[in-house]
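Could someone model iron/sulfur cluster with this protein?
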Amino acid sequence: MFIPKRILFEKNALEYETGINTYNYFKHNTKVELIHLKNNKFKENIPGKSTYDFYREGKKTLVIGVTKGMKFQSCKPSANYQLPLLSGCTGQCEYCYLHTRLGDRPYMKINANLDDILSSAQNYIADRLPEKTIFEGSATSDPVPVEPYSNSLKRSIEFFSEVEHGGFRFVTKFTDIDTLLNIDHRGKTEIRFSLNTNKVINNYENKTPSLEKRIEACKKIINAGYPAGFIIAPVFLYNNWEDDYRRLLIKIRDSLPNVTEYPLTFEVISHRYTTSAKNIILETFPDTNLPMDDKSRTYKYGQFGYGKYMYSKEQIKNIKIFFEKEINNIFDKKIIKYII
Ligand code: SF4
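Reply:
Sure, complex below.
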């Protein structure tokens, strides 16, 4: 669970249940500084002049805010829309996709006005009837480390359990899921775990739980009757990558219950980066050995108006062939959602 060094409460945040719960949870903890903002300027209250220092202090900071815009972003290929519950993450993965869009906002922010967010979700569902509308809860965050006191996921899971044409899914590398185990979720929420080879985890996924702990948490989720799945990402091509990823898939299979109520889902994403992310990564992790040689990649324009450096078409084709074959061989009841 994330214990921040400081919590910044936006104006009005304490008018909401999430704000009050978080305040009550930490009010007697003398190691956590509680700051009530008058002007909602977060950065002034986070020390660190250089990108390097600001990133590290930002990662120790929690903001309890109130989101204003209720226009949800689309979220292909994982869902129809992003559900804006939170932004930021307490992990420090060097390759993190959040460097691009939240590079100047490394702190974790919980949006306290959850009822407003969920009632907007209801409108989006109504607009798409009779189609089903799926919402992604982790498009701009890993929401799990703050869940024991935010209850954002718990309340969203309860909401979606009662909505006929809506579904909810989120992904995590973290393990603070015990408060989600006894919810009457009715199979409407899918919980996925982001896994990688030990080489990738040890080299790049700083401040995140081990592979074994993530799989252990996934077991609990499956035993609680949730649909479950895995995001294998980012896939790196290094010497013997096939052996390592095959071993990872076999380890998943051997660790989980033989019979699961729902098929396991798989999403596989090859490593890619933007120029803005690369610049931030080089400042925040000056000793990184992340493979980011532009010349050895293929540049591709993306949906948010900025380009990405991808592996070549041929390499991505090899990744697709490899994972399709291995997942099909190793797992009986599964769905491969996409390999990109
Ligand atoms: Fe980024 Fe996910 Fe790592 Fe958090 S856990 S730093 S969101 S890649």
